[in-house]
């Protein structure tokens, strides 16, 4: 098949019933969630699930998250589900939290790369929930971007990246959170955060009334959590104080932008600034991937990224910036 990654010719709908019918027919639908856009296939159609990997260029061993409309997915797709999973689902679903539990026989091997566990999530997005209610089965979906690249947070991002490889795009507007879900493994005691994300670990601990193990700064534990990921074409340099990194890049003749949560002061005029429209860490998270794409659209060669303070959603932003920066090393 001819592949033109910029053609973006998939049909777009705002009707979740049309999206659900497309999934029931065994076809691929990109859909909005509160985190990022997903590239979905019904778990009742393993051949459609296999097409997700081909469309993304994603290695087959990387497991997909299965999405459903309510906590019933814990019993439908999980096995030996621990009480802690039910507690978290009851308190934090719908929301940006993926729970990893042992999988039931209703989950085909293609979804989990043969693993005995499955990641489950109920997204907090009205069109996604309406689609999932009518899809007839769980919807396996990774983020709707080519493997290793920046996740999409608008339907236009999806169309630009994968528009010729999906059968339909459900347009629900920009994503409210803008970062991938937090992934919590409930097959360990205590539960382990495999990926920092849209639901801060502090809230998990509050809901559980106890500590979770965090691996954010340790080696990647979740399969598919590579050190190099989420990257734009521009080189990303993370710096608390951008001045010297900016000076170095300018001296090397590079086109430079500074990405920061608030407008940085005292930069040379040649330096573009990429700043979120909304204030605070939440605004930074929501805008992050769009700003990284904007750097590429501006032809910037080096992005000097100022991380937000650690803690809460800041941990997930810092994690993504680190991985975007690691891309150039590997
Ligand atoms: P994406 O939605 O593109 O961020 O990809 C889904 C990610 O969820 C994978 O790369 C894994 O890191 C994680 N994941 C999904 N299922 C499992 C599982 N059964 N065990 C551990 N991690 C999982
Ligand atoms: Mg992804």
Task: Summarize the structure in words.
The chain is of the alpha/beta class and about 325 residues long. The strands form 2 sheets. Strands 1, 2, 3, 4, 5, 6, 7, 8, 9, 10, 11 and 12 form a 12-stranded mixed sheet that branches. Strand 10 and strand 11 form a beta hairpin. The longest helix has 18 residues. The protein is globular and about 60 Å long. The relative contact order is 0.15. The site of magnesium ion has 3 residues, from loops.
Number of domains as seen in the coordinates: 2
What is the fold named in CATH at topology level of the largest domain? Answer: DHBP synthase
**Uncertain runs:** 1-7, 216-220
CATH superfamily assignment of the largest domain? DHBP synthase
Shape descriptor reads globular
Global mean pLDDT: 92
Characterize the biggest β-sheet. 12 strands, mixed
Radius of gyration: 19 Å
Spell out which ligands are present: adenosine monophosphate, magnesium ion
Helix/strand-derived class? Answer: alpha/beta
Q: Count the DSSP helices.
A: 11
The CATH class of the largest domain is Alpha Beta
Helix content: 25-40%
The tally of strands reads 16
Name of the CATH architecture of the largest domain:
Alpha-Beta Complex
């Amino acid at each position: 098949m001819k592949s033109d990654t910029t053609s973006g010719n998939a049909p777009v709908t705002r009707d979740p019933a049309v999206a659900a019918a497309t999934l029931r027919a065994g076809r691929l639908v990109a859909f909005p969630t509160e985190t990022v856009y997903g590239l979905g296939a019904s778990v009742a159609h393993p051949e459609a699930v296999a097409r997700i990997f081909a469309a993304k260029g994603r290695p087959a061993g990387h497991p997909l998250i299965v999405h459903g409309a309510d906590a019933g997915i814990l019993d439908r797709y999980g096995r030996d589900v621990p009480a802690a999973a039910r507690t978290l689902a009851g308190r934090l679903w719908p929301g940006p939290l993926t729970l990893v539990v042992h999988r039931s026989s209703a989950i085909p091997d293609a979804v989990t790369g043969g693993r005995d566990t499955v990641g489950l999530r109920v997204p907090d997005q009205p069109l996604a929930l309406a689609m999932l209610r009518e899809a007839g089965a769980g919807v396996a979906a990774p983020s709707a971007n080519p493997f290793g690249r920046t996740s999409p947070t608008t339907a236009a991002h999806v169309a630009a990246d994968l528009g010729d490889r999906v059968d339909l795009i459900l347009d629900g507007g920009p994503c409210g959170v803008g970062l991938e879900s937090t992934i919590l493994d409930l097959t360990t005691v205590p539960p382990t955060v495999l990926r920092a994300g849209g639901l801060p670990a502090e809230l998990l601990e509050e809901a559980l009334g106890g500590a979770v193990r965090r691996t954010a700064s340790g080696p990647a534990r979740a399969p598919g959590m590579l050190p190099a990921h989420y990257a734009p074409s521009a080189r990303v340099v993370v710096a608390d104080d951008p001045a010297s990194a900016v000076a170095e890049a300018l001296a090397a003749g590079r086109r430079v932008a500074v990405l920061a949560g608030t407008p940085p002061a005292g930069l040379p005029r040649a330096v573009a600034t990429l700043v979120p429209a909304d204030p605070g860490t939440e605004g930074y998270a929501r805008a992050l991937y769009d700003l990284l794409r904007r750097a590429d659209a501006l032809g910037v060669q080096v992005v000097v990224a100022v991380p937000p303070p650690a803690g809460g959603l800041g941990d997930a932003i810092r994690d993504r910036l680190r991985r975007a920066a690691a891309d150039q090393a590997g």
